[in-house]
Request: fold
Amino acid sequence: EKMIDSGRKRQWRSIFGVGPEVIAHVWNLMIQNLSHVMKETLGDKPPNPEHFLWAIIFLKVYGNEATNCRIAGGVDENTFQKWAWLYVRKISCLFSEVVIFENRYIEDEGNDCLISVDGADFEIQEPSPFNEGWYSHKFSGPGLRYEIGVCIKTGHIVWVIGPFPCGVYPDVKIFQMCLKHARQGVP
Reply:
């Protein structure tokens, strides 16, 4: 039974990118914290978990419309886009509920170093007109860079800042402009 359960969880993760517990947690956060926004958007219709999962698929796969629609059971492209983007926007509204800098202290035992920070580059389409300031060495093309901080003890994401054009802002410059100042006054 445990093998079947772990097999199903592995399958779930391969489709959605995270376990069902994480998906349920995000759904519950969205329902609890965004009910007023959901009502404005959906009217009297209740939030639809299936449409929410389409958004998760879209974020995980980031495939073309035909691929996304096929994974979602063969739905119409316009229907998929409408609902996936609606829930992607709602998920993004949870940022301040989830990424909390003070969470770096959770389970702290008095350590000097609480978070690990790194830059993450995301490929974008070439902006026009051409500008080498977008260039990312990670994939030899245009990109945006975010700085992401993860609590060493818990794995919680506690810091995200960006986007920055990759070619103009190396990781150290972003750190010096942002996180270095955010932690001033911290012993």
